[in-house]
Design goal:
The protein is α+β, with helices and mostly antiparallel strands and 375 residues long. It has 2 domains: 198 residues; 76 residues. Helix content is 61%, strand content 10%. It has 13 helices and 7 strands. Strands 1, 4, 5, 6 and 7 form a 5-stranded antiparallel beta sheet that branches. Strands 2-3 form a two-stranded antiparallel sheet. A hairpin with a 6-residue loop joins strand 4 and strand 5. The longest helix is centred in the C-terminal third of the chain and has 38 residues. It starts with a helix and ends with a helix. GO terms for molecular function: protein tyrosine kinase activity. This is Lipopolysaccharide biosynthesis protein. Keywords: Membrane, Transmembrane, Transmembrane helix. InterPro entries: Bact_polysacc_biosynth/exp (IPR050445).
Amino acid sequence: METIDSRSTDQHQLPPDQISPKEVVNRAIQFKEQLIRSWKVLVVCIILGGIIGFIIDLNLDRRPTYTAWITFNLGGSSGQGGMGELGNIASMFGMGGGAPDANIFTGENFMYYMVSKPIIARALLKEIDTTGVETTANKAATTNKDLMINYYIQHSGIMEDEWEKEDTLRNFRFIRGKNPENFTKLENKALDGIFSRIKGETTITQLDRKSSFLTLRTGMHAELLAAKWLEVMLETVQEDYTEKQSKKTHEMLTLMKARRDSLGSVLGRNDSNLARYIDQNQQIVVAEGQLQQSKLTRNSSFLQSLYYAAVQSVDNLNLTLIKEAPLFTIIEPVSLPLYKESHEPYAMQAGLVVGLMLGLVFIFLKQTYNTIMKS
């Protein structure tokens, strides 16, 4: 009988990796009792979590962030030919083969070029029209012109953030028309600080791997500032791009204009000498006099042909500039109102929940430790 009872008892025992429902209930009751005994610890954890969350809420920047974007397409110049233009566009977005192009306007080079310091600094120092912008002082429409960088200082919040303790920078403004090469140490410091901030707020990405569309995006605390910055930024990139792409043609145009003007001056003096010579020697039939007149006439014809050729070259170079100019086509312009992202204070609620969870975990670990020590 004892053997049969022992076998029956072994059959009702559970494997070591399983827990019976009775054991689960017993452990739950023990945890409840431990929770009641340690309620002070739980309350302390909740209060600490709430205090930490409250402190985070106090330091949270509650200003809304306005996100603006502009989608555009960069077309090549018509002077390159059909396949050349398509090849440049394809290589720009990594769809072509061969070695990487050293051109700054292709591939990842163009992405870096758009947010580089020379481009951003040129855009910041660009003069803009602030007509219709509401000022924080009188909330009235103003009609004046100012630098983009001064407008950014006034509306971006940099004076309350990075320059909060810099009284000199808070009251500083840039002067219109001043060459950046002549900037003082204070002006360079202010420009570097604004560049570091605005570069983090501006991004350029490819809309899709299979498309040539690019999206210029920014996020700022002022709605009108965000929209204005993207417009000025794209305009600056287009100007700088055009200047660099047509630099050689501009040099040739300057040279041909100087040649045209020089030939025009020489031709004018030669024609004046010819007219004066004819007036003074109308009755002379000496061969030497006729030879001089023929020489002046021949020089006039030769200079005229050179002058007309120079004028035609200038016209051709002007047409070449138009052909070489890249085409920036705006696919999706900036549209108001912008997307607004509010920053609500949720840290205190999250801190209370986290404090509760940590308190429960601490009590559970304490109960487990006590059970192990007793056994």
